[in-house]
Amino acid sequence: MWGMSLPNRLAVAPMSRVTATPDGYPSQRMVRYYEGFARGGFALLITEGIYPDKSFSQGYFNQPGLADDDQAKAWRPITDNIHRHGSRVFAQLMHAGALSQGNPHRSHTVGPSAISPNGTQLTFYKGVGQYPTPVAMTSGQIDEAIGGFVQATVRAATLAGFDGVEIHGANGYLLDQFLTETSNQRADEWGGHVIKRVRLLTETISRVRAAVDQRFPVGVRISQGKVNDFHAKWPGGEDDAAVIFRALAKAGADFIHVTEYEAWRPAFDGADTSLVALAKRYAGDVPLIANGGLHDLQRAAHMVKQGVAMVAMGRGALANPDMPSLIASGRALRPFDASILGPIADIKESELTLRHG
Ligand SMILES: Cc1cc2nc3c(=O)[nH]c(=O)nc-3n(C[C@H](O)[C@H](O)[C@H](O)COP(=O)(O)O)c2cc1C
Predict the structure, then answer these.
(1) What is the pLDDT of residue 274?
(2) How would you label 12-31 residue by residue, b for 16+ Cβ within 10 Å and e otherwise?
(3) Would 49 be classed as within a structural domain?
(4) What share of the chain is helix, strand, coil (3-state, %, to 5)?
(5) Domain span at residue 76?
(6) What does the alpha-carbon distance between residue 321 and residue 326 come to, in Å, rounded to a whole number?
(7) Tens digits of per-residue pLDDT, 24-55?
(8) Residue 128 is assigned to a structural domain of this protein
(9) Is residue 5 part of a domain?
(10) Could you give the number of structural domains in the chain?
(11) Of 77, 258, 277, 353, which has the fewest CB atoms closer than 10 Å, so is most exposed?
(12) Quick one: what percent of the chain has pLDDT higher than 70?
């Protein structure tokens, strides 16, 4: 798949760990953290959300960037180490939009419309209180945001040593804010019917796709739930899913990473099809990555049987950075201990000890 040899179907899900330097360089601790998953046998690692530009994209203090050439080169020790163990690594590119809660480059946030986000800032990423009300983006700022994804992708491919990128279209961040009716009330070509609300996603995918070699995978992550609205559902149900998955495939996505809290559950009330199964139904033959509660390995195996290309593990991988090795040797998985993410979700020395034995 993607012209790559992948020894298994296990991927590490993207997980923000706010452990970069204040100016967005990956730290030594991150080098050891990522290497642990590769040493443990994961075929593919997807990084935490990385900010692509020094304008409005950064979401958290101590988030890493790919926003200039020096930041990109600083990823080399991470990508080289991962490759040394025979694994692959995709950079997740994330524009936080209205959910930015720590951006030294700007003093206000932007989004599709000037609507206050639901929920409160994430304290484990150092946030406090309500999200500010964003300023509605101009068409120039939308173009600049797309350009940020394009340039960060070129840096990821040429300077940083990544094997692909995942455009973060899920979980309530900028591209999902455009997709979502309640946060996007624009009357221009970027708002209205779902076909227009998905347009920022498809424009970003196609412009990124066109900027790098065809063999360099460019995928997208998509969800209904959001960090600030856990139970959100696409209002048009399966009709929306059909429009969205068809549009992502048509835009040229090389994979679609579908995430739900529990990936096997029906996507909509009163129906029995999961969002992954709907992606399979409407995205043609685009490879799928499934995520959400799949450290239950029977569920994971069932996903593979349904035809997904890979299953991505979040919390399961944190508890078991050596999960593929454990499975191969028939040993039990460790339960996830949420305390490692508190009070701040930065990488703890205790996790690294687990990785290095
Ligand atoms: C600490 C932590 C950080 C996360 N950061 C990101 C992120 O940067 N980008 C993203 O798309 N998802 C992020 N997620 C969501 C995970 O990728 C995944 O969807 C979620 O943990 C559910 O999968 P699981 O049941 O395998 O844990 C994060 C999850 C955790 C636990």
Answers:
(1) 98
(2) bbbbbbbbbeeebebbebbb
(3) yes
(4) 35, 15, 50
(5) 10-356
(6) 9
(7) 999 999 999 999 999 999 999 999 999 999 99
(8) yes
(9) no
(10) 1
(11) 353
(12) 99
Strands (DSSP E) along the chain, which ranges? 10-12, 44-50, 88-93, 110-111, 135-136, 164-168, 218-223, 256-259, 288-291, 310-313
| Nearest to 219, CA basis, from 4, 25, 30 | 4
Task: Tell me whether residue 173 is one of the annotated catalytic residues.
Answer: yes
CATH number at residue 128: 3.20.20.70
Which of 10, 16, 63 has most ligand 1 atoms within 8 Å of CB, for mutation?
16
Percent of the chain with pLDDT over 90: 97
Q: Which two tokens stand for residue 33?
A: 């953290």
Report the separation in Å between the CA atom of 249 and the middle of ligand 1, taken as the mean of its atom positions.
23
Burial 306-335 (b: 16+ CB within 10 A, else e): eebbbbbbbbbbbbbbbbbebbeeeeebbe
Q: Is the pLDDT of residue 91 over 50?
A: yes
What is the pairing mode between strands 135-136 and 110-111? parallel
Is 4 domain-assigned?
Answer: no
